[in-house]
């Protein structure tokens, strides 16, 4: 710059001078033109030469300048006649925004007095950059603004003139905005910001743009301003849950007020457009709404009423999140609540059929009872085991789902155990397990399965001869463990022929109690012993009986004077009278001896 000006100036000055001199020789105003901001000392022109003055007389004639402006920008060299810059000239200071700027200078010379008018044109150089009055502009633009919408921006000013003033504007790279430059009537440039693409606050809430004003100087100067576009929210986003569907488990009988889940929806908008209220949608059943409490502010769901697994296993609900915008938007999600079973129901036990009393000879595997079991709980809590109390001759057999049969597993014997107390215990597999019990009493009916039993199998009864007829010899009672008629015994002598007589003529037995009596008086010298059987028979159907052998030994008394009898054969006779009936007895002594 510094090196270019002098040459440019010289040529320019000379052309201007020549033109003015030729056009107006009589009243001549000499024109010079210099660019502003020339260095002090720079020569504008040689006034002596241009005005036809003698260089040597300049000092003598007191050549001087009269500058209109207060400031003395120029000076004349009295030796050479050169007009030079005494102080830098700022065109913008001098002429502000005037498009042309002249400094009127009079050259005055004495002896004789002469005044020459000089018009010094101060030429603009591009020494000022465009400047924005506000370095920062803030704009609020609704995100619903449509492309093409324009927003005027404050323009930049450049104190230079002509081509050195603002020529154009540039906007920093932006996807959404562009600018349009317009020229005013006076040539000044205005700029509008234009939306070229839809805004989305949720994507970008602030656009930080830089507007640059460029002047037309060479080289060009520029100034910048920042434009902050704040995007104003419109309710264009519906609340969204993090998941479309939620699943949660709760255990039944949880205390009222227990926390279930906290749902959370997000709304990308801001302010009331993003404030969310939660509610059950219309699709959620009344029943479900009755059981659960939804906090409309924070989305928390809590238990409102006692949850019973046995009543309801799954609750489904639709939750709506609605923002508080002017035209509210909403989002939904599904919540499924599974109820987890707790072992809160006792197993149940029911005797469906039971047969008592039963005969003691009942066959093994006979079903005597049918029991059903149930438990309202589910899973392990609802699986039940049925047991009977102690080790008993019974067995439980599963007959069908939840049904058991109690069967005889071993032969029974009323005479050993006349009745059984059977306790059924049903237990579930929950932790801790719950149980129930039921007792039945099984009574056995007697069967004639026991024969009467004598205390001895062989009775030896000594009898002194000469006994009184009808005397009690012994009591041969037997015992029968059966009951009633099965126990009711009848005794009798098993009849046996002995030489024209029978045992019942000699002995009699009380059929009811087994007392044995002698019917006649025995004589040792005639009969020494008797051997016969006595039977005891119960009254069952069919009856059972048993017998014992009775050995009667007649014992001697000294009642005879000695006589001689045949050693081989001896027969004797006698009558025995009992209750008015007399029987005739004949004994063969050798037979008696043989028995
Ligand atoms: C805009 O961007 C400029 C530079 O990139 C930065 O200095 C300024 O802080 C930004 N302004 C805002 C409001 O973000
Ligand atoms: C709910 O319980 C089931 C089994 O009862 C289990 O498989 C599932 O993982 C549980 N879900 C949650 C969310 O705990
Ligand atoms: C009850 O019976 C089940 C089989 O039904 C068996 O596994 C269990 O051990 C029994 N419990 C008792 C206490 O006897
Ligand atoms: C039977 O149940 C009752 C209560 O119902 C209980 O007191 C008793 O101990 C139970 N008996 C057995 C053998 O479990
Ligand atoms: C037995 O009685 C019969 C007549 O009833 C008689 O003929 C017989 O001789 C008798 N026998 C003896 C051994 O007395
Ligand atoms: C006596 O009983 C036995 C069995 O105990 C039997 O064998 C016998 O025949 C019976 N005797 C009579 C005479 O009935």
Describe the protein's architecture and organization.
The termini are far apart. The chain has a 4-stranded mixed sheet. Strands 9-16-15-12 form a 4-stranded mixed sheet, with no helix packed on it. The chain has a 4-stranded mixed sheet with strand order 18-25-24-21, with no helix packed on it. 26% of the residues are buried. The radius of gyration is 73 Å and the shape is rod-shaped. The model is unreliable at 1-26, 565-578 and 580-595 (pLDDT under 50). Helix content is 8%, strand content 45%. The chain contains 6 helices and 46 strands. It folds into 5 domains: 7-123, Sandwich (Immunoglobulin-like), CATH 2.60.40; 131-232, Immunoglobulin-like; 240-340, Cadherins (Immunoglobulin-like); 348-445, Sandwich (Immunoglobulin-like); 453-555, Sandwich (Immunoglobulin-like). It is mostly beta strands and 595 residues long. Strand 13 and strand 14 form a beta hairpin. One 2-acetamido-2-deoxy-beta-D-glucopyranose binds at residues 247-249, 338, 340. One 2-acetamido-2-deoxy-beta-D-glucopyranose is lined by residues 385, 387.
Bound ligands: 2-acetamido-2-deoxy-beta-D-glucopyranose
User: Oligomer, anyone?
Assistant: single chain
Mean pLDDT: 86
Question: Main sheet?
Answer: 4 strands, mixed
Q: Helical content, roughly?
A: under 10%
Strand percentage:
over 45%
Low-confidence stretches: 1-26, 565-578, 580-595
Relevant CATH superfamily of the largest domain: Cadherins
Sum up the overall morphology in one term. rod-shaped
Gyration radius from CA atoms, angstroms: 73 Å
State the distance separating the first and last CA atoms: 179 Å
- The CATH class of the largest domain is Mainly Beta
In the CATH scheme, what's the topology name of the largest domain? Immunoglobulin-like
